[in-house]
Amino acid sequence: MGEKVVLEVKQRKLVGKKVSKLRKEGLVPGVIYGEHLKSKAVEASYIDVQKVWRVAGRRQPIEVSVDGAKHLAMIKSADIDPVKHRIRHLGIHVVNKNEKVETEVPVKIKLDEGNETTPAERAGLVVLTALEKVEIEALPNDLPEAIYVNGEVLAEEGQHVSVSDLIVPKGVKVLTDPEIVIATVYEPSAIAAQNEETAGAGESPAEVESENGSAEPEAESKKEEK
User: Which of 21, 162, 209, 223 has the smallest number of Cβ neighbours within 10 A?
Assistant: First the structure.
């Protein structure tokens, strides 16, 4: 886990449709809740929320200060305006540092020092990624910012790496199906032929792989202000 991320929130009085006033004032309404914490309507600075979301998202624990009281928590949901791409509402879940949580983290290809691409790409081949995130379980303080797979094994056409090939940190359990493919090596000509055959409107090799492992664009849960 990286540096501690802190978000300061305050209890709010405005609820329902009245929260539009908060947004005009540069605030984001939200709800904080937990097993041992009564649900509270809160608000936070939009600038602070954006910084925390950029660093932690829904994958890293944060420290939430509620009117002086500090809690270990995770952002459970974020309602984002589809046009303005601004966060409109947060759902913050207080967690216990001694209890495991489930979340998604990015998958990244790990290369040897000095290499910027896989052996396949250095040989003129194409590596297409079909899975960008995996679901994991771990204690809050053991959650990694990302989980890696060795890209140096991708050297020839047809070779691929799957979830079972991930380099899993100690204390972390991967919940995603181990047989799902993460990335595959293709000949550029094969991709071009596929595109021509489908007139650019059909499935590319990556899309075929993604049927088994593609991570859909992150769908944000929309919470009703209470």
Answer: 21
